[in-house]
Amino acid sequence: MRPVSLHPLFASLDTLSGIGPKLLRPFARLFARENPRVIDLLLHMPTQFVDRRARPTIAEAIPDTEVTLEVHVDGHQSPPSGSRAPHRTYVSDATGDLVVVHFKMERARLEHMLPEGSTRWLCGKISLYDGMRQMTHPDRVLDAAGLARLPPVEQVYPLVEGLPAGTLRRAMAGALERVPELPEWIPDTVAAAPDWPAFRDALTRLHRPATPAEAVPTGAPWRRLAFDELFAHQLTLALVRAREEKAGGRATIGDGRIAQRILAALPFALTGAQQQALAAIRADLAAETRMLRLLQGDVGSGKTVVALLAAATAMEAGRQAALMAPTEILARQHVETIAPLAEAAGITVAVLTGREKGKTRAALLADIAAGRIDLVVGTHALIQDDVAFHDLALAVVDEQHRFGVEQRLALARKGPGVDMLVMTATPIPRTLVLTLFGDMDSSELREKPPGRQEVDTRALPMERLDDVVAAVGRALAKGAQAYWICPLVEESETSDLTSVTERFDSLKAHFGTKVDVVHGRMSGSAKDAAMARFAAGETRLLVSTTVIEVGVNVPNATLMVIEHAERFGLAQLHQLRGRVGRGEKASTCLLLYRGPLSETAKSRLAILRESQDGFRLAEEDLRLRGEGDVLGTRQSGMPGFRVARMEFHGAEAEAARTAAAAIIRTDPDLSGPAAEALHTLLHLYEKDAAVRLLSAG
Ligand code: ADP
Ligand code: MG
């Protein structure tokens, strides 16, 4: 049971004043959860901060830097009705004039905000336009009372459409008032702990920093909260591990006859990396202990084949295997790879996703329970309560970061001492494997299957957009397909990025009906349908945010355009690029950037052009980010973590692992003097798996 002290944090967000049911919807989208709660807002981390302490005069204000200007409002000028021109407000101080520009806003509202003859304070950036200083859509327009409340340093948060920055800030202020004092769960043994604020204080100082130093991931408030999150995670892993070890495993030993038939049916030989991974997996399966192994490899490195051969061992021993993927489309893709091989090898494979319903599903479940099916490939549908196996020996989880520990355990519970293989196409630097997974074994497929073409990668400035569109046209004319990736428009309030829908509109106007779009605001089934149309070749150009699946395989897609490439992390660019270059034909990736590029952005694009090795890129990415390049951190934040950022919180991760291990050693059921505090922490971070293990005794 959740401790009473946490109830205010888990209350629905609409219990905050000013948040009604209508506002709940954009918050739900922002947090990607149906019932947004106070805690979700408190753990919504900023991406940038604005230093509001600079108070120059108009003449002193440097273009494109954040300033707060004290101005006199001289007058208003509305555009003629029907015109798209902006509303202009003329303001000045003793040193000069400034035009404040607002598009699509009513005159009455602006006159109310900026009454003629009054003094107001404007927060934002000025620019020079036709020799005139102007400020377009100030972040803030304040009167004297508002100025008195203006924080010295202001955090900037990711937003979604329908959720203005001001609304989020007001909600955050309300949420901070709800934060209770909680018992301290950080053990005294953690060396940095004395420098960290208490939980409640840390949240307040992170969201309302007094100085830039407190606002950033390397500041004490953020470090403390990152430690908390990592500590809760490590405690959970340690508890799960301890239990799995207690439960014991089984030896699953095959005779190689099914594997031989699969190998004979393969039109290629295994790479050395695949053979090594397979040997390690077979040794794990043969051991009496439970396997928990990570199989890492770029998209297309041949993980599915390894998983199938691992499953063969289970079947040779007369047992079953299951392969769980995060989406319908990925599950079906695995089946496509596996089906012909399975047929040749005489194994029965079935698919179980949300799409199997009624009688079909019932018949399928009966076959699985009776052992008439050797290998079941599916989605979350696999872990539903009524799915029972005859004798499950091996569970494979693809794109494991898309699943929680709890879901992994649920699959493992479907058989006695199930061996677990988790796969990921997101290469994780070795230093992070421990953090993310605890003491898990790891195999890497660094070597690509032979014959893979490198993707010809080029960087082009935005000014060459027309050339890029022409290149897309040539590719389409040759019968190829192409992806066009845009960053999210709603990432930040100051963002000037092209929205995916605008780009879709303009490309559709140019190329016609063969263009389609996928983005995060579409429903899951609409996204799947658009992906399926593209995979089937019905559409030829897919405009998309980064939501398109990492594992999606469309060999005919040979061109990828990535807009605002400078905003993406290296690892992510590589991931995106991995969606082309999957067939026989030469592929190209065009990185469109908007200059001027920072030094880090330059090295990032250069490394990407040079290397196609996901592991090297992941390590470089971490290094570059560690050098303080914060842009784009959100997109490549650690999967499953809201607060912790690997490039900044490596020390906290290590401290959390050590502290968790020490606790589980001396107090394995968390019943010692720290029990209350630790239970509170696990509930706070919703470590259901840990909570369940503890309550089961
Ligand atoms: P992943 O799951 O790692 O993305 P897959 O297992 O789907 O990769 O493999 C991608 C493609 O490469 C498949 O078409 C597969 O048949 C092929 N492939 C796998 N291993 C090899 C190999 N050793 N040599 C040649 N092709 C391979
Ligand atoms: Mg795959």
Short description:
By secondary structure, this protein is an alpha/beta fold. It has 4 domains: 106 residues, no CATH class; 98 residues, Beta Barrel (OB fold (Dihydrolipoamide Acetyltransferase, E2P)), CATH 2.40.50; 196 residues, 3-Layer(aba) Sandwich (Rossmann fold), CATH 3.40.50; 157 residues, Rossmann fold (3-Layer(aba) Sandwich), CATH 3.40.50.300.
Structural class, from secondary structure content? alpha/beta
CATH architecture of the largest domain: 3-Layer(aba) Sandwich
CATH class of the largest domain reads: Alpha Beta
- Say which molecules are bound, naming each kind only once: adenosine-5'-diphosphate, magnesium ion
Shape: globular
* C-alpha-based Rg, rounded: 28 Å
Q: How much β-strand is present in the residues? A: 15-25%
CATH topology title of the largest domain: Rossmann fold
Query: Count the strands?
Result: 22
- Helix residue percentage: 25-40%
Count of helix runs = 25
Kindly, what is the distance between the CA atoms of the first and last residues, rounded to a whole number of angstroms?
14 Å
Major sheet: order of its strands?
Answer: 6-7-4-3-2-5-8
Q: Can you summarize the main beta sheet? A: 7 strands, mixed
Catalogue the unreliable spans: 489-497, 628-637
**Would you tell me the overall average pLDDT?**
88
What does this protein look like?
There is one protein chain. This protein has 697 residues and is of the alpha/beta class. It folds into four domains: 4-49 and 156-215, no CATH class; 53-150, Nucleic acid-binding proteins (OB fold (Dihydrolipoamide Acetyltransferase, E2P), Beta Barrel); 250-445, P-loop containing nucleotide triphosphate hydrolases (Rossmann fold, 3-Layer(aba) Sandwich), CATH 3.40.50; 455-611, 3-Layer(aba) Sandwich (Rossmann fold). 40% of the residues lie in helices and 17% in strands. It has 25 helices and 22 strands. The protein has a seven-stranded mixed sheet. Strands 12-13-11-14-15-10-16 form a seven-stranded parallel sheet, sandwiched between helices. Strands 17-22-21-18-20-19 form a six-stranded parallel sheet, with helices on both faces. Helix 20 links the parallel strand 21 (557-562) and strand 22. Helix 7 (199-207) crosses helix 9 (220-247) and helix 10 (257-265) crosses helix 13 (328-345). The longest helix has 28 residues, at 220-247. The chain is globular, with a radius of gyration of 28 Å. 43% of the residues are buried. The model is unreliable at 489-497 and 628-637 (pLDDT under 50). The structure holds adenosine-5'-diphosphate (ADP) and magnesium ion. Magnesium ion (MG) is lined by residues 303-304, 551.
